Amino acid sequence: MKNVDDLIASAAELADRGLSKGEIADELNVSRETASWLVERSGAATEPEPKAEPEGPDDIHVDWNAIGSGGKRLTYVGRALADLLMETNGEADVTVGIEKAGVPLATSVSRELETTLGAYSPAKHQWDEGDLEDLGGGFSRNFSPVEGRKCFIVDDTVTSGTTLRETIDAIRSEGGEPLACVVIVDKQGVEEIDGVPVHSLINVVRVGEQ
Questions:
Q1: Structure pTM?
Q2: Per-residue pLDDT tens over the stretch 183-193
Q3: DSSP states along 160-184
């Protein structure tokens, strides 16, 4: 995807497939606000288009398809993420991947660190409109439990930190201990969330006024 028109077309296709705006945000690696804007611009939204041209959101699209589409490349990136985690965070029992994109990354990390593998589905996957606080996420029972275990958290990008914060809270609610988070790309320069360090391979820095 090289331009906004490509993103709008992709958002329309995903909306036509029945994905919620939260899932569209996850698929396109953009914020919920950006996903809403893209869907509205595509004409797939049920609301009428405003007469005035809407102002675009302040966001950065991250396309890491070149990594995700290659098993070897994904493994190499997973090793780099594992290396970041090993530097200063001690040893974990479980590597928790945030669905969807975080799970294949976490699989590679868990293999490298010799931990078990957990999977968390965030509330944003159910989000279409309204308040995320009215929704809930959950851990998959097909993967390792986190209760009484030290956990690393893996995702692909940080947009606002909301999903990482939700996952940290969920692990603590289950009786686990979140040690650190790791992502490929951090759009906000987040160093820690609720006392849990956040590591990234790439930090995006905006220079100048928007």
A1: 0.73
A2: 999 988 899 99
A3: SSHHHHHHHHHHHHTT-EEEEEEEE
